[in-house]
Amino acid sequence: MNVPRSNERGSARLKFLLVMIIIAAVAYGGYEFVPVAYQAYLFKDLMQHDVDVAATQGYKPSWVGEQLTKSLPEYEIPQDAHHYADATRQSHRGACAVYSPVRVSGIHLSVRV
Questions:
Q1: 10-32: buried (b, 16+ CB within 10 Å) or exposed (e) per residue?
Q2: CA pair distance 53, 58, nearest whole angstrom
Q3: What's the rounded Cα separation, in Å, for the pair 50 and 44?
């Protein structure tokens, strides 16, 4: 029983191409996003370190802000980035909001770091 299956020809090739396109899109997205996410992780770690030092050494919140401002070029963060440091009786807090441009094949996106 040899039944011709002419309507099924080429379906494996189409599935392969679709899977490869999806894999390539995910890989390219990771290639663009991972460095930005890693840089954000490093800067968050620096902010936590500065806040911990300020809390244990009794520094004012302005000291944390100064330290963050000095570190901006090292972490490739623009000078107009919004950051603040604040203290209450129990804790010190610091935050920074930066929108980093990510270019995806001609489309420019902003990622909040």
A1: eeeeeeeeeeeeeeeeeeeeeee
A2: 8
A3: 10
Q: Is the pTM of this model over 0.70?
A: no
Close Cβ partners of 54 (under 8 Å, ≥ 6 residues apart)? 60, 61, 63, 64, 85, 87, 92
Helix-, strand-, coil-residue percentages of the chain, each rounded to 5:
55, 20, 25
Considering the domain boundaries, does residue 7 fall inside one? no
Q: Which domain holds residue 47?
A: 13-112
The mean per-residue pLDDT over the stretch 11-20 comes to 88
Cβ-contact 42, 36 below 8 angstroms: no
Number of domains into which the chain is organized: 1
**How long is the chain?**
113
pLDDT at position 85 over 90? no
